[in-house]
Specification:
The protein is an alpha/beta fold. Helix content is 51%, strand content 14%. The chain is globular and about 55 Å long.
């Protein structure tokens, strides 16, 4: 257990100081979560760093982990015309689990990707807290109620919430404080 904690702390230090770091295959990946899933090593590191460095992210991840909602996180591009990240429903009408996909813009690096991940996880938690959301139509209805539409001229169904924007800012501040504390501890 102590070795595992030391490895996690070493990886956290790498992420803190290196931003986007390519790791060799022999190094172990951060711990897996049951409901937050990915096949990408950099995304696993971002999720682990989000969990370890931000109390807000930790709460979001714990909420998702305690739910019947599965969140797949990957890098890629959203339908928007601007660089962005997004959350989409993966399957409509599933009886037991709800499946969501968070897509993170591959251009994001370091603390920026972690803050954006926190933002998208907040959207996932908004869905976790709304058991009536079982597909894209009910998800749209939820965001009509709790959020506002972005870019109505674009033709894309893009929604935002004040809470998710606030979460991004809080996570960003927590990451900055964690980095500051680590640098002060080294002095």
């Amino acid at each position: 257990m102590a070795v595992r904690i030391q490895i996690q702390q070493a990886m956290l230090t790498i992420v803190l100081l290196g931003g986007a770091v390519t790791l060799v295959a022999e190094q172990p990946c951060p711990p897996q979560f049951q409901n937050i899933r990915t096949t990408e090593r950099d995304v696993r590191l971002a999720v682990a760093s989000c969990f370890e460095r931000s109390i807000t992210c930790r709460g979001l991840i714990e909420t998702i982990e305690a739910s019947a909602t599965i969140v797949y996180v990957k890098t890629g591009w959203c339908r928007s015309t601007r660089p962005s990240s997004c959350l989409n429903f993966m399957a409509n009408g599933v009886e037991v689990y709800r499946y969501l996909r968070v897509t993170l813009d591959p251009a994001l690096r370091g603390d920026t990707v972690i803050a954006v991940l926190g933002h998208e996880l907040q959207h996932a938690v908004e869905i976790v807290r709304a058991p009536e959301v079982t597909g894209t139509d009910t998800m749209r209805a939820l965001f009509e109620k709790i959020g506002y539409r972005l870019h109505s001229y674009s033709g894309f169904d893009e929604w935002e919430t004040v809470e998710a924007r606030h979460t991004h800012d809080v996570v960003w501040d927590e990451l900055k404080q964690a980095r500051k504390a680590l640098l002060q501890a080294r002095r």
